[in-house]
Amino acid sequence: MKLMLTTAAFALAGSLAMAQDVVRMGTEGAYPPWNFINDDGEVDGFERELGDELCARAELTCEWVTNEWDSIIPNLVSGNYDTIIAGMSITDERDEVIDFTQAYTPADPSAYAALSADADLDGGVIAAQTGTIQAGYIAEGGATLIEFATPDETIAAVKNGEADAVLADKSFLAPIVDSDPELSFAGPDVPLGGGVGMGVRETDGELKAAFDAAIQSMKDDGTLNAMIEKWEVSTTW
Q1: Are residues 82 and 155 in the same domain?
Q2: What total number of domains does the chain contain?
Q3: Given CB 3.0 to 4.6 Å as the disulfide criterion, which of 108, 112, 132, 143 pairs with 126?
Q4: Is 122 exposed, middle or buried (0-12, 13-18, 19+ CB in 10 A)?
Q5: Alpha helices (H) in the chain, listed in sequence order
Q6: What are the distances in angstroms from CA 51 to CA 68, 106, 167?
Q7: With the CA atoms of 96, 99, 101 and 104 taken in that order, what torsion angle do they form, in degrees rounded to the nearest 10?
Q8: In this model, does residue 107 exceed pLDDT 60?
Q9: Among candidate residues 109, 230, 225, 99, the one with its CA nearest the CA of residue 173
Q10: Residue 115: strand, helix, or coil
Q11: How do strand 165-169 and strand 125-129 relate by DSSP bridges?
């Protein structure tokens, strides 16, 4: 039954490709290892490799578009690109505005990074990127939230003393903490979100079905887990 459904979805993708010459893949390009701009000025990272493979399996011609995080959903809705593939956690609030494919990674734990392992996480000033699940979590607690447009700015706020800690995906923070002797993790990990998926417009049901089938095929043959392990972005399925 699963094979029949997947085959049908890929057939649908073929007709979709004929109707839509190019599928524009929107990402931030500033959140390694999920997505970033490499030395050649190209989108790179886990989601570039994943997105290219998904497009190949769905027989879609795709191109990459970068957009700042704080306007990434409005610009999808307005038609500046056709998908969001940018480390975006699936949440009920976002699902009211756009649709999501099935998750392509399980929920990645969030973590605090600070200049001291005993930083005040409950009542201090905590930095987070605007519009993230981490910002929402801090806003609901007792700490003071300070938001920044880019993830790099959240790290800088901790380094210059503007914030006591930053809360972000642990997969983003881990290589930064490992390479910076001034930074360390503080407190326990924080489980947030319902996994990471591709965002599409609510009117693009055929495109969603095509990518759902491609994601499922990568789960079924093990290539998705191999890619997750390669880029160290999450636990595997």
Answers
A1: no
A2: 2
A3: 143
A4: exposed
A5: 2-19, 46-57, 72-77, 92-95, 133-139, 151-159, 170-179, 205-221, 223-231
A6: 18, 17, 26
A7: -50
A8: yes
A9: 109
A10: coil
A11: parallel
> What tokens does 215 get?
């994601």
Output the six-digit token pair for 15.
């007709």
Query: The tokens of 205 are what?
Result: 């049901």
Residue written as token pair 């997969």: 171
pLDDT digits (tens, 9 = 90+) for 124-134: 999 999 999 99
Pairing relationship of beta strands 110-114 and 165-169 according to DSSP bridges: antiparallel
Return the residue matching tokens 């795709």: 62
Cβ atoms of 20 and 33 within 8 Å: the answer is no
Q: What is the pLDDT of residues 43-64, one digit of tens each?
A: 999 999 999 999 999 999 999 9
CATH number of the domain to which 137 belongs: 3.40.190.10
Is residue 236 situated within a structural domain?
no
Q: Give residue 94's domain range.
A: 2-106+194-231
**Residues 14, 101 within the same domain:** yes
